[in-house]
Each structure stands twice: as structure tokens, then as C-alpha cells.
Amino acid sequence: MRHKLFGLGGLVVALALLSACGASSQGNNQDNYSEGGGSPTSPGTPPRDGAGGGVDSDSGSGGGSSQSPGQLTAGDWDDNRNFPFFQKYLSDAPQGMPAHPSTDRVIITVRDAEGRPVPNARVTVGDAAGKRLEAPTASDGRLLFLPTHDGAQANATFSVTVAPPPGQSGEPLTTSLEGTAWNLTLPGVQGVLPSELDVAFVVDATGSMGDEIRYLKAELQNIVDSVQGSFPNVSARFALVMYRDDGDAYVVRPFDFTSDVGLFRQQLDAQSAEGGGDYPEAMERGLGAIHQLSWRTGNTARLTFLVADAPTHTPHYQAFLREANRARLSGIKVYPVAASGVADEAEYLMRLAAQLTLGRYIFLTDDSGIGAPHAEPHIPCYQVQLLKNLLIRAIGSELEGRRVPASGTEVIRTVGSPRQDGSCTLQDGSVTYL
């Protein structure tokens, strides 16, 4: 890198962890719209790691942080909820970015006979030439199918088989479907919210990330304790993947899932920020390392927070998207957290990863007054709030099986004049949603 709900009160302290992510990085997201739907603005040149490998700004392990939690501000965006706008965004992609065939997107939703979402049902989609998709549903019962992306021929007829989730009996459902929204009822099963939580933090550890890593060291104990305290009936585990770039002391350093708080803290305390040297980093290797982790396959909510402020190197764009697609097929949602330094290319790749996996794109804003200015993302409408609250709701939404919106008291500022129902009318008359 350049570098209510259900007892969520305790999680606020917990996820203060990443609320300092990007605090002292530089420059962020991208150009776009001013408050109330103004005209796009252009970001400056993204900052770069210092030549010669950067500075280890996290020397000394296990030390605390002088930073206070809960200061960084951020917005978020769902490209699947705003799919027509997403297609326009793709058509205006920066030069040289990889294509993302998704106009024929299908959202598959599996529910039980009572209308409750069924997490971790196994969905298989095939056409006359064979299997095109096999993956589990998320905790809200949804799964994304992209026919062209997944190798289907034009005008193909699809057969869909849905098998009960692990631990539940019942007969698989097989049917033929068409259209862009496949709503399936799976008889003989119950939609049960996840009893397990696996969260992986994938963090750029190049020279500009010293503040973020120090913050993780100082606040991790609070995060883990709060998650466990707020969700005593959920078996929570955490994993860590640090990544840098080719030529550094390491490229990827993964630490597998553990519920042992002391061990996880020890692993994190040993990390430091160093290396980099140029703007792009080995982000594709960092994301790819999540597939080395021992994700659970039962009634589990699976999330990855990808904390980055730079794209992968140009020759590895497709490799990054392949790793994001592997996450989709494994039922892992990717929530990118765009720190300072993110420019057009990184925003594009990170938003594609979120869209593929039904995650949301999270980006820092200037409202905290921390760090260098953040360029606007290519997003017309959003709410500014504390980053910690966004992360809390990301986890809470996965455990509840539904999107948990921000409360009015959490909103610091709005962009694009969203109405009470979350809709925003753009200058061309089209409508987007928070």
C-alpha cells in the first residue's frame, strides 16, 4: 500500500480496532460526486511508499497506541443493490482495467417454508454443457450467479439443485428457472441463523501502514472480547493475513483461525510495517492467502475485511479477480476497507471483489480530520458515519441474515441527499439506494 439489533453495544468497542485503519496513510479513494449530487472531481496522484522499502513505523512489538478509537469516518456502498449504476461505473472504468461480464447477473435466494433465509444451502447450477456454479448461500440465503462470467452460453436453459445445509436432513430441490431473480423454497429444512463466525483480516503491511498495525495491536483484545461477549452463543474465530510485495522480507504471512485470544494477540504483536517501495502491492497474493485458512463449512458466517490503500500490480489484475471469485464459490463475503491512498484502479478492483461476493465497499472519508485528504469514490449517495459502526453492522448483518441499516444518531453527514427510505434521486432522474 501507499503506503435493535441484538446487543451490539459491546461490539462498538470491539470493532474500534479497524476504526484507525488508514488513519495516517495518504490520499484515498477516487473521484466522484459532491454533496447533493454535484459534478465529479478528479483525485490527485496516489501517494507512494518511500523508495528503498519504506520505513518500519511500527518498530517495537506489542506496544500500545496513543490513538483513541472511534475517530475515523467512512461510507459504504452496495453495487448489487445499485446494479444499473454499477453497470455504468463498469462502462466508465479506468483504461486497462479488466472486463467484468455481469449484465446477466442472477440473484438466487433460498428460503424455508416459513420464508426465513436458509444459510449454507448448497446450490448447483448447470446447463446442457455441464455444471456452471456450485457454492453455498450466505446467511441471508442469497448467492450470486453470473452466467457469462461462469462460462454459460447465451440463451442457455439452467437447471438448479439446492441441497439442505450441513446438519439438516431433507431432499434436494431441483428445478428449471429463468430471469434474473431466482427465489426458491426448500422444503423440510429450517432457516437457522449462523452459530459460527469466521472473520479474516487481510492487511497490507508495507511501510505506510505502521499506524494501522499499531492500532490493531492496541485494540485487538477489545475487539475479540467484545465479539465474544456480545454473541456468547456464537463460536467466533479470527484469522490474520499480512501481505507486502515481491522483494520484501515476505510477500504473504498468514495466521490460521483461532478462538484463542492470547495466541491471536501474540501473532499480531509480532507484526510490523515495512517494505513496499512502489505504489502497487501484492494484493492478489494477500487475498488469495485466505484460501489457505481453515474456514468452517457448517452453519458459519464467513467474512474477510481487506484493508488496503493500493491496487495489485497491473499484470495481476485478473489474478486478484480470480481470488475474489474463489471467495464467492467458498461462501466468503469480502468487505474491502479502502484506506488513504486508494485511487481509481484500487477502487475498481475492490468494488468488483465486493460485488462478486455480495459484500459492501467501505471507504474512509475526511470527516475525522485524520490523515491527508481522501478523494471521493465514484459513488453518488452515501452516509458518513464512524468506521467502527460500519464494521459492527457488517458482522451484525451477517449474523442476523439481513442488512442492518445505520440509525439516525450514527449518521454524521450525508452525500447525495438520501431520503428517509434510503433512496437517492440523481440528476439524470435515476434512483440509487443506501
UniProtKB/TrEMBL annotation:
Secreted recorded as keyword: yes
Pfam families in alphabetical order: VWA_4
Ranges for region Disordered: 24-78
Domain VWFA per the UniProt entry, residue ranges: 198-395
Localization in the cell: Secreted
Keywords: Secreted, Signal
Main location: secreted
Span of the signal peptide: 1-25
Residue ranges with Gly residues bias: 50-65
PANTHER family in the record: ALPHA-PROTEIN KINASE VWKA
Listed name of the protein: VWA domain-containing protein
Upper lineage: Bacteria, Pseudomonadati, Myxococcota, Myxococcia, Myxococcales
